[in-house]
Amino acid sequence: MSDLSRLERFLRTDPRDVGCDEAMAVLHIYVDIVAAGADPAERYPGVAAHLRACGPCGADFTGLLAAVANE
Amino acid sequence: MERASGPAGDLDEESSAWLRRLVAGGGEQQAAERELHAKLVRIALAEVSRRSGSTPVTGPELDDLAHQAAADAMLAILAKLGDFRGESRFTTWAYRFVILEVSSKIGRHYWRNPPVALDAGQWELLPDRLGVDPEGHAEAAGILAEVRRVVEDELTSHQRRVFVALVVDGIPLDAMAARLGLGRNAIYKVIFDARRKIRRALVAKGYLEDPGLEQ
Prior knowledge:
The complex is a heterodimer. By secondary structure, chain A is mostly helical.
C-alpha cells in the first residue's frame, strides 16, 4: 500500500458500524465472548466494526478485557 | 440492533451469589458492597494507569479521578441491579460501569489543563495527523487542499468545529463530547459522516481509487 495507507484507513467507513451507544450497551457481553476464546464478530459484526474504527470505544473494550483478564 | 437474547435466570454460580448478597440486607449486603467497591477501585486505578500516557491528567489528580469513578460506578451498579439480565458474568457487567466512568471523567478533566485550546485550528499539523507526507507523496498538496475544502465548504459549522477539534487539533473525542455537553455517539457520528464526505471527494478527484466499504 502507498504512503496514503493511514489516510485510507481513517476515511474508510464500514456500513455495519453500529456506533458508540449500541457498542457500549453490549460491551460486557462482547468482552466475555472474547475472554472465553470465541470470536464475538460472528455474533456482533457491527460492534466489531465499530471497535475497529472508534478509538475511545476501542480503549474501553481493551480496558474491560484487561479488567476481566486480571481478575 | 445487535442485542443479546440470553434470558435472565440462567446465571453462573458466582453471578448468582453477587446478586443475592447485594440485596441480602444487613451485614452480608454491606460486606458484598465493600468487596465490590474494592474491586472497582482496583480496576479504576489500573485503568487510569493504563491511560496515563494519553491524557494530560496526572499524579494525584488521576488517583482522585479513579476513586471518584469507582464511587460513581458503585452507585450506578446498585441502582441498576435490576437491569442485569445475566447475558454476561455479573462482574464483567459491573466492571463496564467503572471503565466507562473512567473514560468520561478523563474527558471532562481534560479541560482543566488542556494542551491545546478549543478552536485552535492547527491546520499545519494536518499532514502529520493524516499521515500524508507532502515530501513523500506527489499528490499530497492536492489531497490536503481537498480535505480542507470539504471541511470548510461541505460541513456545517458544528460538523466543522468538531472535525477541526478532533482531527486537526487532536482533542480527544470524550473531551470534545464533555465540552459540548453531548454524548460520545453524537461526536462519533459527526466524524463518521465527515470521513464519508471527504472520501467521496477524494475519489471524485481521483486521489483515491475506490469507495471502500461505504454504503
